[in-house]
Specification:
Blueprint (H helix, E strand, L loop, with lengths): L1 E6 L4 H15 L3 E8 L17 H16 L3 E7 L21 H15 L3 E4 L4 H4 L1 H18 L14 E6 L2 H13 L28 E4 L4 H10 L9 H4 L2 H8 L1 E9 L2 E2 L15 H4 L3
Parallel strand pairs: 1-2, 1-4, 2-3, 4-5
Antiparallel strand pairs: 5-7, 6-7, 7-8
Helix pairs in contact: 1-2, 1-7, 2-7, 3-5
């Protein structure tokens, strides 16, 4: 079966879904990654000598290496430009993903969906996890593309394909809070700074634990996930939080990947309606698309 993950920039696939992609490949499924932009607005945090190449060219090479480490052989690019963080001038670049016509971008992705015919599609959530314009746009484009791919009237090649289940990747707030407290207690920096939170609801992002549809234990693939993150060396340098969390805390932060089921057979799924699964394919593996 095929799992298609849509991500805004090179490195997002390894951070958000790296363990799940590696797991799917090892189990004989077909993991497919779609990258929406070239990551032009990233910062060369490691000070790598680009040898005259653009950052986007270098990040493309990093992406190839990371996908190889995860066992992902199928990759597609949507061809847009990185929009940068919210409020930056790059948001208004005429080629930016943020400014892209939603229907035209969805048509590009829907053509890929008809080609791949995935049982499961994953993207960012409606808030783009932390509000980045490209992550928000990736969600909107994916939702529209799934509908277009199934529409026989859509101006697309190939036969229509109805995606059985569409998910968004997320982070359970309870797990995030435990990891935050664990890092501070061990004397390490946390992505949330040194703030004290009385409960998980105070965290700036994440999903309620009782809304999580699927929790996947990716600890057996954690070394491959961390190696794939390290392959994005211009963005995730050797001193990065992602690579320097001690092993016992890395399992808490990166050893579980969580997903919300938002659409089944073209119909929305209410938050929390389906929980407790440990496999993305689930019922989709038995029904298939149509």
């Amino acid at each position: 079966m095929s799992l298609l993950c849509v991500h805004p920039h090179p490195d997002d696939e390894s951070i958000a879904c790296g363990g799940t992609l590696a797991r799917a490949a090892e189990q004989g499924h077909r993991p497919v990654v779609v990258t929406c932009t070239g990551g032009e607005e990233g910062e060369n945090l490691a000070g790598i000598d680009l040898d005259g190449r653009s950052l986007a060219d270098h990040r493309r090479q990093e992406l190839v290496e990371a996908l190889g480490l995860l066992g992902v052989e199928a990759h597609h690019g949507l061809g847009y430009r990185d929009s940068g963080m919210a409020g930056r001038a790059a948001n208004d670049h005429p080629d930016s993903f943020h400014r892209a016509d939603l229907r035209l971008a969805a048509i590009r992705l829907a053509a890929i969906l008809r080609q791949v015919r995935p049982e499961v599609v994953v993207s960012d959530d409606a808030d783009g996890t932390y509000g980045h314009p490209d992550h928000v746009k990736a969600h909107r484009v994916t939702a529209a593309a799934v509908q277009l791919a199934a529409d026989p009237r859509a101006p697309l090649p190939a036969e229509p394909w109805s995606v059985p289940e569409r998910f968004v990747h997320t982070l359970g707030r309870g797990r995030l809070l435990n990891a935050h407290r664990g890092l501070l207690a061990a004397g390490y920096a946390s992505p949330f700074g040194d703030q004290h939170f009385d409960d998980a609801g105070q965290l700036p992002f994440g999903s309620p634990d009782d809304h999580i549809s699927v929790r996947i234990d990716v600890r057996p693939w954690l070394d491959r996930k961390r190696a794939a993150m390290a392959a994005h060396r211009s963005q995730i340098g050797p001193d990065s939080f992602f690579l320097n969390v001690p092993d016992e805390l890395a399992a808490e932060f990166f050893g579980v990947e969580e997903f919300l089921l938002v659409e089944r057979d073209g119909q929305p799924v209410p938050a929390g309606a389906i929980t407790g699964r440990d496999e993305l394919f689930g019922a989709a593996g038995y029904r298939g698309g149509r």
